[in-house]
């Protein structure tokens, strides 16, 4: 009869260790391999993310995430600005349609006197010709820009057409102008804009490039 309390021999312990150690080592190796694969996937995703964000020269993971967050926030601001422009353009289109309806209603009614018709014709011709004749010094009548430090007030007139508001806002955004207030109206096919904006650049804002960009847009009409 054997005593169960007796100490087992070293040979018995060696046999038992040999029985469980390979299995434990295999579990540990699987865990390490899984962790390595997970980190590889994260690194691959970060590289893809880095390639999608423009002007991202950072290599460490935290910097890549920071730049990506800033880029997404900038995209959100741009989307909000475009949505605002679309709503403004839709409202301008409604006002333009209303003006056309009012003019047609007036034309179908009693005709104004000869002197009044001449006055209306002169006003219409003046509205249509605003901004198309530039003086010799290069200044134009359809663009007025007032500047106070980095705050700019832009008044602009040009023929209305589909999508012109988006073109104007894109052009001003390229020139580092952040437009925070836009008012528009359309009369007889002429779009009138009053834009309050702030210059985001580090240097002093120059009115020349702004005028040139707006004139190029007006020239497409």
UniProtKB/TrEMBL annotation:
InterPro entries: bHLH-TF_ACT-like_plant, bHLH_dom, HLH_DNA-bd_sf
Annotated BHLH domain residues: 26-75
Keyword Nucleus: yes
One Gene Ontology term, aspect cellular component: nucleus
Leader peptide range in chain numbering: none
GO biological process, one term: regulation of primary metabolic process
One Pfam family in the UniProt entry: HLH
Keywords: DNA-binding, Nucleus, Transcription, Transcription regulation
Keyword Nucleus: yes
Chief location bin: nucleus
Subcellular location: Nucleus
GO MF entries: protein dimerization activity
Record-given protein name: BHLH domain-containing protein
Species of the source: Gossypium barbadense
